[in-house]
Design brief:
Elements lengths: L1 H50 L9 H74 L1
Helix pairs in contact: 1-2
């Protein structure tokens, strides 16, 4: 019986460690998602600034070419950042699901441990009562 109790204690401890590890990873992913969102906003701002042409002025071919290359590069970077954000959101969702599953498992283990502990205490009480009655 003592071995089972220790086993459930260890299992509960392992579940706590898994939950903490997954929460840490989830928090890291959240921070990275915020950084990516900030990057997307900055790229949008730069695209807006460079896509506005001054009225009444003609652009030389070189300026137009440079501006269009910059806009194409920024659009590509924005797509990469959006894909990264989607991937991170998916990863965060997976970690959140794992956290919920581990919490559920931890509760079940804790309940089993408490049940076994009650049984163990009852057995000890019965044994002590039997020994007292024999005396």
């Amino acid at each position: 019986m003592k071995k089972k109790l220790k086993m459930f204690q260890r299992l509960e401890t392992l579940k706590k460690k898994d939950i903490n590890k997954d929460q840490y990873q989830s928090n890291l992913i959240s921070k990275e998602m915020k950084k990516t969102e900030s990057l997307i906003e900055k790229i949008d701002m730069i695209i807006d600034e460079n896509s506005k042409f001054k009225e009444g002025k003609f652009l030389s071919a070189a300026e137009f070419k440079n501006s269009s290359n910059l806009l194409n590069t920024l659009a590509g970077q924005k797509n990469v950042a959006k894909n990264k954000k989607e991937f991170l959101a998916e990863q965060k969702n997976q970690f959140d699901i794992r956290i919920a599953k581990n919490n559920k498992d931890k509760k079940l283990v804790s309940e089993k441990y408490n049940d076994l502990l009650k049984l163990y205490k009852e057995d000890l009480e019965k044994k002590s009562q039997i020994t007292i009655q024999k005396k």
